[in-house]
Amino acid sequence: MTETIETFLSRRRKATINDVARLSGVSKKTVSRVINNSPSVHPQTRDEIAEIIARIGFRPDPQARGLAFRRAFLIGLIYDNPNAQYVVNMQMGALDCLRGTGTELVVHPCDWHSAAFLSELREFLENQRPSGVIILPPIAEDRRLLDLLDELNVPHVRVTARTASSEDSSDAGREIVSRDDIGCAEAGAHIAALGHRRIGYIGGNLDYPSAHVRRRGFEAGLAAHGAAIAADLDERGDYSFDSGYEAARRLFEHPNRPTAIICANDEMAAGAYKAAYEAGLHIPGDLTLIGFDDAPIADRLSPPLTTVRLPTREMARMAADRLIAAQPIETGLVVDSALVVRGSSSAPKPGF
Amino acid sequence: MTETIETFLSRRRKATINDVARLSGVSKKTVSRVINNSPSVHPQTRDEIAEIIARIGFRPDPQARGLAFRRAFLIGLIYDNPNAQYVVNMQMGALDCLRGTGTELVVHPCDWHSAAFLSELREFLENQRPSGVIILPPIAEDRRLLDLLDELNVPHVRVTARTASSEDSSDAGREIVSRDDIGCAEAGAHIAALGHRRIGYIGGNLDYPSAHVRRRGFEAGLAAHGAAIAADLDERGDYSFDSGYEAARRLFEHPNRPTAIICANDEMAAGAYKAAYEAGLHIPGDLTLIGFDDAPIADRLSPPLTTVRLPTREMARMAADRLIAAQPIETGLVVDSALVVRGSSSAPKPGF
DNA sequence: TTTAGTATGGTAACCGGTGTCATAAAGCTA
DNA sequence: TAGCTTTATGACACCGGTTACCATACTAAA
Predict the structure, then answer these.
(1) Local confidence pLDDT in tens for the 352 residues of chain B
(2) Alpha carbon distance A346, B16 (integer Å)
(3) How far is the CA of B35 from the C1' of C4 (A)?
(4) Alpha helices in chain B, H assignment, sequence order
(5) Cβ distance of B88 and A84 shorter than 8 Å
């Protein structure tokens, strides 16, 4: 007695490729061909098998497939970044793309400054053999890591910042580039146009490429309106709230304090709010503040922070897209940042 | 010619169980026994094999192991929670425990209110067959989900909130319980002891068990000092910044406004800060504010927020621990919250 | 000494897919 | 119509582990 689809379904067991083969009267190899869209399967055969697959709800087992393919159906997200919202956005973006593909997202935070950094990552990559990994800043800049990925032949996409004028790197096709400077230039132009000329700056951690890119963007925007960062108001932080607070305090102690401060991210801008609050400076009346990230906190500050938004989620989506796309793409993918004007920026008081 | 370890190493191929068996002169079954710590392997044999394993750096392939065991060496983290910091803390906690075990963390945010919620999760569980999953609030309360996990036989641990006096649920051993009310009681006692008697409340989303537990905790703490939430100052939010802002505004419009407001989380407290700022109320001089979570924002507000801390990371660590522990544990695991006093609470002005 | 029991290790099949290669059938020259 | 490609399919080994089952060797009890 030949087994029918009905008798099979009544058994309620998870379907395997053998079931499909048996029910459709072909060898499992042919079913495998259908699963993998290989050519040279007769259209009619293909349709019949596809029909059976759909009827009995067969889904190839990722473990078995992974064993045969020598790679897991997993995408790794590798980062060492303290910004929870940023990380979660990236996760969601990657998942936007992965959902329904049968590939899962494995998160792999790590410690860039640990001695075991590379060996720990090597173990992960060698053991799990993910189909691909996405690397977030700042470790996306680590040449040793990129070399390791090449050595182990792990497809990867880096997320990194670049100025609009940078020439394409040799890694084009393996990176998602954000042009942080575009929005920064808008921001610089914005405050210069408002009339500010005593402009302070709180820069970011130089380990991050974004620190340089953003700086150049702000400068370009200011320069377009004949303004510039005051040489005596040029501070550096490390992207943390506290560093922003401290830097702002130093700026406020200056005999000729700034009427506007540009911060390389929102965290530091939030620190500057605190310093301003303590110094009795009213925002934006006494002081204009600009941030970068459009982090949740930007909206929660009073008044809400004028900042630059980066489409983080989209970037991760694009990165994951590349990794699961059948064909490698050769051109780099570029996204732009954009200014978001809120309540923390206004014209300086007359007399300044 | 017998192959030596040296000649093998010079080949630089990833070691398999067959290599170990060949080099140590036993069958792969015996090696498998060593890997899995089965008894009935002669101690000396075991040591010799372990030695070889270490020398050639053999690590069993999770894919192959997974195929044979019919489960993946993955722990899933399932949630639908908008709080990025909370989610990241949980991820880190789980990873604290997983690191070095060869088991990876797969993040699986989902949409509780989508029609495909269960079917999407079922597909994930059936396809990937994770060794276990951790479920975060609020979906840890979804009975359908728990039933699904039981049906598919997926080990799981729920993270949930419970009052100190709750009786043990039947799920003991499969949940990590946070006693949110402990810290809330401390907080209630704190402001009551400071002398507040016009006390407002901004509650949380009732979908979350924590909303009820926290409420009871605050009430108990207040009651211990003869205080209570004023019936006419009892608002409800949904844990979001905006809802906190709106609720606080309503409270401030009250002819006899509160001298203290308890918020069921920090996000809403931050919203209340904004409302207070706009209403010209000085914190803590004019208004005492209390939050819950000890979120990053608590520390960034000016003045920093008095709040209740929950050991989220530890909770996730414990949850993951349970899932990879060899023996199931029958007793529930309980952690306590604790008050963190910062600058947003002080005695009310005399005359109030 | 025999018998039963236990510790230890081997063999073969299996988990659910894939690769390689052979082969039958069909299409295309000439 | 013979001869050569091309297309469609299957047989079989293999990925790297596991379990089921069997075969020893050694130990304890009768």
Answers:
(1) 456 788 888 877 889 999 999 998 888 899 999 999 888 788 888 999 999 999 999 999 999 999 999 999 999 999 999 999 999 999 999 999 999 899 999 999 999 999 999 999 999 999 999 999 999 999 999 999 999 999 999 999 999 998 877 766 667 679 999 999 999 999 999 999 999 999 999 999 998 989 999 999 999 999 999 999 999 999 999 999 999 999 999 999 999 999 999 999 999 999 999 999 999 999 999 999 999 999 999 999 989 999 999 999 999 999 999 999 866 666 778 999 999 999 999 999 886 5
(2) 66
(3) 31
(4) 5-11, 17-24, 28-35, 43-56, 62-69, 84-98, 117-128, 143-151, 180-194, 209-223, 241-253, 266-278, 296-300, 312-324
(5) yes
Amino acid B14 CA to nucleotide D10 C1' distance, rounded Å: 32
A57: region left, alpha or beta (phi > 0 left; psi from -120 to 50 alpha): left
Beta strands in chain A (DSSP E): 72-79, 104-109, 130-135, 156-161, 175-179, 199-203, 229-236, 260-263, 288-290, 307-309, 333-336, 338-340
* Chain A environment of B124 (Cβ under 8 Å): 104
| One-letter amino acid of A250 | R
Q: Hey, what are A340's tokens? A: 């978001």
Asked if A95 lies within 8 A of B109 by C-beta distance, the reply is yes
Q: Is strand C within 7 Å of residue B84 (CB)? A: no
Q: Protein A3 CA to nucleic acid C24 C1', in Å?
A: 27
B101 Cβ neighbours under 8 A, 6+ residues apart = B324
Smallest CA–CA distance, residue A167 to chain B, in Å, is 35
CA–CA dist A203, A88 (Å, integer):
24
* CA closest to A276 among chain B residues: B302
Say whether pTM exceeds 0.90. Answer: yes
Task: Return the CATH fold of B181-310.
Answer: Rossmann fold (3.40.50)
Mutant choice from B70, B123, B127, B265 vs A, greatest count of A C-beta within 10 A:
B127
Topology agreement, domain A5-60 and domain A70-179+313-337: no
Domain boundaries, chain A: 5-60, 70-179+313-337, 181-310
Put simply, the answer to whether A106 touches B109 (Cβ < 8 Å) is no
Contact residues, chain B, for A342 at CB < 8 Å: none
Give the residue on A whose Cα is nearest the Cα of B70: A63
Pairs of CB atoms within 8 A across A/B? 98
Min Cα–Cα distance to chain A from B63, Å: 5
pLDDT in tens, A147-176: 999 999 999 999 999 887 776 666 767 899
> Which residue out of A80, A88, A282 would a mutagenesis test of the B interface target, given it has the greatest number of B Cβ atoms within 10 Å?
A88
Fold observed for domain B70-179+313-337: Rossmann fold (3.40.50)
A29 CA from D11 C1′ (Å): 10
Say yes or no: domain A5-60 is CATH 1.10.260.40.
yes
Alpha-carbon distances of B109 from B106, B113, B121, rounded to whole Å: 10, 12, 10
Task: Tell me which chain B residue has its CA closest to the CA of residue A274.
Answer: B302
